[in-house]
């Protein structure tokens, strides 16, 4: 990693930070440290759901379905992602939650990477 290049495996590396691969929470000097964006590799077994709704979100997010069937919940709206590559984008202030209808893998990008937020 001395050359500024990091090579890893999302499935293995994600376990170290509850799925997050890139963001402000990585050590300074690590190529995965970023104040601009956060990247998460989410592996969710069928039936798993977010314990609580996210409220007062201050970031914008993009979630892309890699495999499975995954439902995003927003106030007054439910979005089902069922084909590889299906995605949803939501902005600042949009409350949300999720539910894995089947074993699912999703990639989430959030920006900016905001210090003070827990790695969740």
Radius of gyration: 14 Å
The ordered string of helix (H) and strand (E) elements is HEEEEEEEE
At the fourth CATH level, what is the homologous superfamily of the domain at 36-111?
A: Jelly Rolls
Give the uncertain stretches in residue-range form.
none
What is the share of helical residues? Answer: under 10%
Distance between the termini: 26 Å
Major beta-sheet overview = 5 strands, antiparallel
The main sheet orders its strands as 1-2-8-3-6
Q: What is the helix tally?
A: 1
Overall geometry comes to globular
Arithmetic mean pLDDT: 92
Structure at a glance:
This is Signal peptidase I. The chain contains 1 helix and 8 strands.
Word description of this protein:
Strands 1-2-8-3-6 form a 5-stranded antiparallel beta sheet. A 3-stranded antiparallel beta sheet has the order 5-4-7, with no helix packed on it. Strand 4 and strand 5 form a beta hairpin. It has 1 helix and 8 strands; from the N terminus they run H-E-E-E-E-E-E-E-E. The protein starts with 9 loop residues before the first helix and ends in a 9-residue tail after the last strand. Helix content is 3%, strand content 37%.
């Amino acid at each position: 990693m001395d050359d500024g290049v990091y090579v890893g495996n999302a499935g293995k590396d994600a376990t170290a930070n509850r799925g997050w691969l890139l963001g402000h929470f990585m050590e300074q000097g690590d190529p995965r440290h970023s104040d601009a964006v956060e990247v998460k590799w989410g592996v969710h077994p069928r039936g798993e759901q977010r314990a609580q709704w996210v409220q007062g979100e201050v970031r914008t997010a993009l979630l892309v379905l890699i495999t499975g069937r995954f439902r995003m919940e927003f106030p007054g709206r439910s979005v089902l992602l069922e084909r590889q590559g299906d995605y949803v984008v939501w902005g600042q202030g949009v409350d949300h939650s999720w539910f894995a209808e089947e074993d699912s893998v999703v990639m989430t990008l959030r920006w900016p990477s905001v210090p003070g937020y827990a790695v969740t």
